[in-house]
Design brief:
- The mean pLDDT is 96.
- The relative contact order is 0.16.
- The strands form two sheets. This protein has an eight-stranded parallel β-barrel with strand order 1-4-5-6-7-8-9-10, surrounded by six helices. A two-stranded antiparallel sheet has the order 2-3.
- It is α/β, with parallel strands linked by helices.
- Helix 10 (205-210) links the parallel strand 8 (189-193) and strand 9.
- Helix content is 44%, strand content 17%.
């Protein structure tokens, strides 16, 4: 069993007690509250041509192990927001990444109270529309859809739920056929994960291979394996309009300086 298969099997088990039918009317009723949140799509679609930075709150991962186990999600997200991160990704998987849905709620509450209009992504292994409901309730502006981990029907159900609830969706891919599946499902944001979620090996060359295949009207994000301005420059050179950075920022003594370096690329 590869790692992604293991994680997805656990996730389906974890949410089983919460799974229920989520009618379209319930999702539509959530849209007004979601509309009050800053738009994730607009935030990463920078008009000045600079690379957008999605800064991630991540305590640990199966590939890196412990990164920053005791870090406060709220404090880290506020650092990112005040450093002008374009968006913030909050891990809400506890077993493998040390995050919780409460982290996301606390982060969005703090950003709201401080008047910091930075959209947040619920970064988790999404399998059912009930997780979309939870994302809206926790203040998210976007969700993640991992194409490799889902059937076409599951992708459609999640994307339809996100649209009804007025959330954006990042379609995460790792191959050309997955790009094709994402586009067929109506993706307008595609993230190329440079980390193979089966073997957890990372190679920025994957973005260089796949991002040129993504239509220009779709926002392309390069995810994982970005630690330096030189890495960010490689991502931008192949057509990425945004980067998602977790480990490097979590370990950085001065996250604001690193975000500024990425923006300056």
């Amino acid at each position: 069993m590869d790692k992604l298969t293991e994680i997805m099997a656990w996730k389906r088990q974890e949410i089983a007690s919460r799974v229920r039918h989520v009618p379209a009317s319930e999702l539509e009723a959530l849209a007004p509250s979601a509309e009050l949140r800053p738009s994730f799509h607009r935030a990463i679609d920078r008009m000045d041509g600079r690379l957008a930075v999605i800064s991630e709150m991540k305590r640990r991962s199966p590939s890196a192990g412990a990164i920053s186990e005791t870090t406060s999600a709220v404090a880290q997200a506020e650092r990112y927001a005040r450093a002008h991160a374009d968006a913030i990704s909050v891990l809400t998987d506890e077993k493998f990444f040390g995050g919780t849905l409460d982290d996301l709620t606390a982060v969005t509450d703090r950003l709201d109270s401080e008047g910091l209009r930075v959209p947040c992504l619920r970064k988790d292994f999404m399998v059912h529309p009930i997780q979309v409901v939870e994302a809206v309730q926790a203040g998210a502006s976007a969700i993640l859809i991992i194409v490799r981990a889902l059937t076409d029907d599951e992708i459609t159900d999640l994307h339809d739920a996100a649209i009804l609830a007025d959330l954006d969706a990042i379609f995460e891919v790792h191959s050309e056929p997955e790009i094709e599946r994402a586009l067929r499902a109506g993706a307008d944001i595609i993230g190329v994960n440079n980390r193979d979620l089966a073997a957890f090996k990372t190679d920025l060359a994957l973005s260089e291979q796949l991002i040129p295949l993504i239509p220009r009207n779709v926002i392309a994000i390069s995810e994982s394996g970005i630690f330096t301005a030189a890495d960010a420059a490689r991502a931008k050179a192949c057509g990425a309009r945004a980067i998602l950075v977790g480990e490097a920022l979590m370990r950085a003594p001065d996250p604001a300086a690193l975000i500024a370096e990425f923006h300056a690329v």
